[in-house]
Specification:
The protein has two domains: about 1-90 and about 355-385, Uridine Diphospho-n-acetylenolpyruvylglucosamine Reductase, domain 2; about 95-350 and about 395-480, Cytochrome p450 (Orthogonal Bundle), CATH 1.10.630. Helices cover about 50% and strands about 10% of the residues. It is built from 16 helices and eleven strands. It has helices at about 5-15, 50-60, 80-90, 100-105, 115-130, 135-140, 140-160, 165-185, 190-205, 225-250, 260-265, 275-305, 305-320, 335-350, 380-385, 430-445, and strands at about 65-70, 70-75, 165, 360, 365, 370, 375-380, 450, 460, 465-470, 475-480. Helix 12 packs parallel to helix 16. It is globular, with a radius of gyration of 23 Å.
């Protein structure tokens, strides 16, 4: 029987027993309308970042907007000042854990583990061994090898199909990059392909709407999300436990510097149990693959759409690097315009405009003089901040030059644009992600001129990250590069 039938039967139950989440809290004055019982859930979806921004503007509640999503209390910031209070405040030190997140084991990994001794231990391990400047530098040769393979795939697609669909090439390159960094090898054969499919399925599951996240319906699985998450988690455990046991049998992890070997060679008192190790390794691959690929697809869409900006970036590369060698990591510091392009794309198309920014109030707190009870979810709408005309002149225009006029950090200190978060929950892999994006973008622009094969569609789809709704297709024409 269709799940909607059961939902229809449950509506009278909610009508009788459900109360609006913010009822009896006298500061909730800004929303003018919401659906009975379900709050603002109809406003959520693939364009939730835009809808919430529009609501905040119309209610004159950009600093803070109080809404309900089913039984969930939600406060939304669309302003840098209140965003800083949320992201840097001790009261919002945890992340809200939805059922999908828990079932996919992310509650034991860095992104969602509750703040405390265990979480601090994970952050220390990641900072010292996975994302340290020394390790990023040591991985340059492999990143170069991955992008070489990607350029070969571009040539192959142009020869075989007459055009390039970049999404598949970018995802494959990102997966190889993460497998090498996490496991010390991208040559996993069918296991690497299987892990890539698991990442794809996980993104689909986390992006799906689940009633249990907004109502007390733990006993139901209306759309089969719980069952699918359980099945995927079992497959992830089996695969990663096999890799861990294989590495233990080989016993050479003390001479290697991949992340799995680091975890296995930690002192006894710092060791993680296998279940936690699986969760951490899974999160590293899961988050590392799509973030880089999604951002690069947005950047390349802008390069294809704005031929003058693409040409200017290529001129900068030609002047700073020349035609006789590939771009190196050491060249990036001199490619100021290329860095500005990346910043402008992060402003216009932030990969995590909502979900990556959610925090949970662990105790009662006053936020911007408003009382926020413990258990409230606080969310920063970075898309709204980055498109606010009071902060960014002509915010809808793609204009990298705005970042050439003055030094502007995007690493979390300036909440006008902090795409990797801020405060204690900022993304620990931001330096590695940027190093990869800058290097691969420079190589793509150095070797090819990118032209549209059809009108560029900048339509958005918000899942866990903000993706292009339709994969980018374009022509790649070889430039006069002698290497």
């Amino acid at each position: 029987m269709e799940p909607y039938f059961w939902l229809a039967l449950l509506i009278p139950f909610f009508t009788i027993f459900y109360q609006t989440a913010w009822k009896n809290l006298n500061h909730n004055q800004n929303p003018k309308f919401s659906w009975p019982f379900i709050g603002f859930l109809p406003q959520m979806g693939s364009l939730a970042h835009r809808k919430l921004a529009s609501m905040a503007t119309s209610f004159k509640s950009t600093r803070l907007m109080f809404i309900s999503l089913g039984s969930m209390r939600l406060v939304v910031s669309s302003h840098p000042e209140t965003a800083k209070q949320i992201l840097s405040g001790n009261a919002f030190s945890d992340r809200p854990i939805k059922e999908t997140t828990r079932l996919l084991m992310f509650d034991r990994a860095i992104g969602f583990a509750p703040s405390g001794k265990y979480w601090h231990h994970l952050r220390k391990i990641a900072s010292n061994h996975m994302f340290s400047p020394k390790r990023i530098l040591n991985m340059e040769g492999f990143r170069q090898g991955v992008v070489n393979n990607m350029m070969q795939e571009v040539c192959k697609e142009m020869k075989d199909r007459g055009l390039v669909e970049l999404r598949g090439i970018l995802h494959k390159g990102s997966l190889d990059n993460m497998l090498e960094s996490v496991f010390g090898s991208s040559n996993f054969g069918c296991r690497g392909d299987e892990l890539g499919l698991m990442v794809k399925e996980g993104y689909e599951l986390i992006g799906e709407f689940n009633w249990v996240d907004y109502f007390t319906l733990g006993f139901l699985d209306l759309f089969g999300v719980k069952k699918r998450c359980y099945n995927l988690a079992c497959k992830v455990r089996d695969l990663l436990n096999g890799i861990i046991e294989e590495r233990r049998r080989i016993g050479d992890f003390r001479t290697r510097d991949d992340f799995l070997s680091v975890l296995l060679s930690l002192p006894q008192e710092d060791q993680l149990c296998d279940a936690d190790m699986v969760a951490v390794l899974w999160e590293m691959v899961f988050r590392g693959v799509d973030n880089v690929a999604i951002l690069l697809e947005w950047i390349m869409a802008r390069m294809v759409l704005h031929q003058d900006i693409q040409a200017k970036a290529q001129q900068e590369i030609d002047m700073c690097v020349g035609p006789n060698r590939h771009v190196q990591d050491s060249d990036i510091a001199n490619l100021q315009y290329l860095q500005a392009i990346v910043k402008e794309v992060l402003r216009l198309h932030p990969p995590g405009p909502l979900l990556s920014w959610a925090r949970l109030a662990i105790h009662d707190v006053h936020l911007d003089k408003c009382f926020i009870p413990a258990g409230t979810t606080a969310m920063v709408n970075m898309w709204a901040i980055a498109h606010d005309p009071m902060i960014w002149p002509d915010p809808s225009t793609f204009k990298p030059e705005r970042f050439m006029e003055a030094e502007f950090s995007i690493m979390g200190s300036d909440l006008r644009l902090a795409p990797f978060g801020s405060g204690r929950r900022a993304c620990p892999g931001k330096a590695l992600g940027l190093a990869t994006v800058h290097k691969w973008l420079a190589r793509m622009l150095q070797q090819f001129k990118w032209l549209p094969s059809q009108p560029i569609d900048l339509g958005e789809c918000l899942k866990l990250s903000l993706e292009m709704k339709k994969p980018l297709q374009c022509y790649a024409i070889a430039r006069s590069f002698k290497k």
